[in-house]
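Pipeline run #58 for the internal structure catalog. This entry was flagged by the ingest filter as a single-chain record with no existing model, so it goes straight to prediction. Upstream metadata was stripped on purpose; only the residue string is passed forward. Reviewer on rotation: M.T. Logging verbosity set to normal.
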Amino acid sequence: MKLVFATNNPNKLKEVKALVPPHIQLLSLEDIGCTEDIPETSPTIEGNAIQKARYLKETYGYDCFADDTGLEVDSLQGDPGVYSARYAGEAKDANANMDKLLDNLKKKKDRKAQFKTVIALHINGTLETFTGICSGTIAVQKKGDKGFGYDPIFLPDGYTETFAELPLEEKNSISHRAKAVNQLVKFLNN
């Protein structure tokens, strides 16, 4: 089975490839010659995932899946949420995003947060969605050099290390993305 994963993020592609069984061949946007920015204009994480999957299916004709992920911080009313990648501006700078978030939490006692991933699968003319959530807290400073995005400041529940300090295999056993991908794989295997 061949599926296009609607991402240009090599870190995300690596994470997902590690979770998908060998009988599912993943193609990236680069593999199919998709170089344009796929629209992400929905006000919700789920809406963006659906929008990207529909765009890819309608424009390129491939069975595909797309994801959108947001970091939702309780004391910031769910921000940065759907704007996680652009929290500090259109440059999508992970360090600037983390710095802004840490600055916004300086005077907050409640640092509870969750990562939420929604995957939209467009296959055989149908659309399915899968949601994965990982709860945790926001650290007071960046730690670790693995992962990407907000990983250096996210402490998953039950851990003293950030996502950026955990080996990929361990992160993939608990992460929001892994939970959503596992649901996707289970659906594809049925």
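catalog note: The CA atoms of residues 78 and 122 lie 28 Å apart.
catalog note: Strands lie at 2-5, 25-27, 64-73, 80-81, 112-123, 126-138, 154-156.
status: ready for reviewer M.T.
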